[in-house]
Amino acid sequence: MKQTTKFYMGIDVSKLYFDLSLMTVINHQKQPVITKRFDNTATGIKALHKWLKEKGVCFDEHSLLVIENTEIH
User: Fold this and answer.
1) What does the alpha-carbon distance between residue 22 and residue 51 come to, in Å, rounded to a whole number?
2) Is residue 73 part of a domain?
3) Dihedral angle sign, alpha carbons of residues 32, 57, 35, 73
4) What is the dihedral of CA 40, 53, 28, 18, to 10 degrees?
5) Which domain holds residue 24?
6) pLDDT value of residue 41
7) The whole model's pTM is what?
């Protein structure tokens, strides 16, 4: 049986940083959610890319990414 892996990511963006939550689903089994904070800079985005690569995340039909901004009133 072929293993199916799906990635669900949510990013909450603020001015100074962004928080990412990652849930991986392997063969319909949810894995623990992992969260990580990155600086909202070019260096932080490079760190995000490296971290996602380390986690095996690929951006294809098996991935969903949602981004929202932190709104302060």
Assistant:
1) 11
2) no
3) negative
4) -10
5) 5-67
6) 96
7) 0.85
Amino acid at 47: A
Kindly report, residue by residue over 7-63, the tens digit of the pLDDT: 999 999 988 999 999 999 999 999 999 999 999 999 999 999 999 999 999 889 999
> Where residue 46 sits, what CATH number does that domain have?
3.30.420.40
Q: What is the CA radius of gyration of the chain?
A: 13
How many CB atoms within 10 Å of residue 22? 20
Burial class (CB in 10 A: 0-12, 13-18, 19+), 47: middle
> Residues 6 or more apart from 11 whose CB is under 8 A from it?
18, 19, 20, 21, 65, 66, 67, 68
- Using the predicted structure, report yes or no on whether residue 1 has a pLDDT greater than 70: no
